[in-house]
Amino acid sequence: MAARTLRIGLIPGDGIGREVIPAGRRILEALPSSFGLQFSFVDLEAGFGTFKNTGAALPEKTVETLKKECDGALFGAVSSPTVKTEGYSSPIVALRKRLALYANVRPVKSVASSKSPVDLVIVRENTEDLYVKEEKTYDGPDGKIAEAIKRISERASWNIATMAGDLALQRQRVRDAGGKSIHQKPTVTITHKSNVLSQTDGLFRETSRKALAQDKYQTVNIDEQIVDSMVYKLFRQPSDYDVIVAPNLYGDILSDGAAALVGSLGLVPSANVGKDFVIGEPCHGSAPDIEGKGISNPIATIRSTALMLEFQGEEEAAAKIYAAVDANLEEGKLLTPDMGGKATTEQVIEDIIKRLLLRLSSFPGLNHWH
């Protein structure tokens, strides 16, 4: 059978994005031909540095290349100005809209030896809510007033809820096949604030419940939490949660906060998923305080690379990568400073590649959602 060739766009962005995105490429290049995969790569630009150099945070060439030439992409991190900068807007938010990447999927999972096990996935709606970035400021009788539009649609809510339901069933299939887990039954928890935002969050809640009432989800337990109590319970009782689905803003906050449950944002991957395209994206930021020091954690990018492969149907290859990362973390000898260690970025990359190559013949290839 002829090898499948995947062309991957590499968008390092700013700061440590330029140090960790090469790790994703090296991991893909380390996968042997026995998987029936080959990769080619194209380097693309986006970010605040690109904006300062060219006047465009997301060059049209980047978008068109992704649409016409690529099967997927890896996106590093971007630095965002803390004050209003005329003409600048987030390139990753724009990419999500331009490529119809309606779901941001963020698994948060501890290693097997953890004393407080965590095994959950946050499914964040990726295209609307306050992130439509429709804001205005005007003069009021007592000073300036700033307003922002919060947009929730039935269509987007339905799509993200069904994504969450499908992932819950997929995770359960792996558990039924013998995958170890802290969960006994697939559960989707709908997160909202409809007690205050009865129109917008009310529509999200109502639509999500309708979507998850479909016959194919009859084995899935459907729960819900008001977002403020969700934050409290997530940190107090993380083992209670399997799949969490939320509007854009809440999903962003919850997933970054959940990273604390496993030790570092440097461990947490994500995938921006649409019907025809996927972008792997580590959850951390551009970290200018450690830029250029060679100590950034590449694991979130490596896991995001595997997550990208999963959504491209290459679950076995993804599982091999996850196993190599877990082995590195379980041993704990080569950890970057954010994890309490002294290892460099390069040392961690080399260790994971070595473990990947050592385990290729023995690891059974279970899907990651377990």
UniProtKB/TrEMBL annotation:
GO terms for molecular function: homoisocitrate dehydrogenase activity; isocitrate dehydrogenase (NAD+) activity; magnesium ion binding; NAD binding. Its cofactor is Mg(2+). Residues 7-352 form the Isopropylmalate dehydrogenase-like domain. One of its GO terms (cellular component) is mitochondrion. It catalyses: (2R,3S)-homoisocitrate + NAD(+) = 2-oxoadipate + CO2 + NADH. It holds the Pfam family Iso_dh. Keywords: Amino-acid biosynthesis, Lysine biosynthesis, Magnesium, Metal-binding, NAD, Oxidoreductase, Phosphoprotein. The keyword RNA-binding does not apply. Its EC number is 1.1.1.87. One of its GO terms (biological process) is isocitrate metabolic process. InterPro entries: IsoCit/isopropylmalate_DH_CS, IsoPropMal-DH-like_dom. Pathway: Amino-acid biosynthesis; L-lysine biosynthesis via AAA pathway; L-alpha-aminoadipate from 2-oxoglutarate: step 4/5. Belongs to the isocitrate and isopropylmalate dehydrogenases family. This is homoisocitrate dehydrogenase.
